Structures are given as C-alpha cells and as structure tokens.
Fold this sequence. Notes:
Blueprint: E1 4-11, E2 21-31, E3 33-38, E4 41-47, E5 59-62, H1 65-72, E6 76-83, E7 90-99, E8 104-108, E9 116-120, E10 132-133, E11 144-145, E12 152-153, E13 175-176
Antiparallel strand pairs: 1-6, 1-9, 2-5, 2-7, 3-4, 3-6, 7-8, 10-11, 12-13
Amino acid sequence: ALLGLLFLGVAGRMRAATCTPTSVRVCVEADDEADLYVDGLLIAHFNYVNWDSSGVVPCQTITNAAVLAALADGGTLSTRVHNIGSGEMWAAYSLDVNCSSGQHSYISSATTGGALGYHQTDCNTPPAAPPGSGSTNWYDTAFNPSGWSAPVVVTGQTWGKPVYNPQTGAVLPQLSYSNT
Length: 180
C-alpha cells in the first residue's frame, strides 16, 4: 500500500520571451489531494476526482499579485500530494499563464527539468518535515532537499481524470516516486 506524502519541487520555466503575468489558470489532479506553491506562496488546494465521477479536474484562475510576480521571476513550484488511503499517489498539473502582451506561457508536469521528489511514508497530521536544510518549510526557496530524487512518470493503471496540456490538448503525465 502506498501511504504517506509525495513532495515535488520544480523550477518554473515560462516559455514566452517576456511575460508580465495578468492571471494564471492552474489545473491539478492528484491522488488523493494536493497543495501547490510557488516560491513558498500557497497557490491553492486541489482534491482528487475519480475517472467515473461527474466532476471535472479542479482548475482555478489565480490573480494574486504575489503569486504572479513569483511566476514572472521563474519561481519554483512545489507540490505536496497527500495519499489519504492506500493505493495510488501521484500528481499531474498545468499552468496556463496569461501575459499582458496577449501571449501565453505554459508550465506542466510534462516540463519538469530539474524536478525533485520525496516519498514520505508517515501520515501524521501535520506530517514530519521531509529531509533537507536551509529553511523551516520544504516549499520555501531557501530549502535544500536531502535524499530526494527525480520523479518518474506513472505508467501503471490510475483512476483519476486526466489533465490536458492547455497548449496542445495532449494528456499530461502523472508524476510519482514509482512508475506503478
């Protein structure tokens, strides 16, 4: 059984040459729930949606000035995935950044260069901090992870709804500590 938490961190990479963000559409599907941060700022909380549910993948439009400024500076995205029950533990996400120029910039679970993940098996509330140094909180930019590794794309069967790339329409990969 896969119990515990999965922590993912990846440097955000805006694709537009210059982008002054005006808003960002964030979609996250995670089994069972996820919190998404940029440079230590909570963007939002996202709950799981099963494949046969009438619900849709949770998306939110964010206009918070501090979050937009962090994205404009190429901020670091951090995700905490909480596995409430036994079974799958993964996350897939897309960020469609609207720029003041009318262009868009995209960040997704398909563009994870430099990403690191950590699987923590304790389910305490609140959970113990994952290993690292330099900051109190694992999602702060000053945090230096220790014992973390690159996340892998899940290739086994999953039961959550897919997240689609807002630029291409392709299904985005689900990331975890294990591919099954």
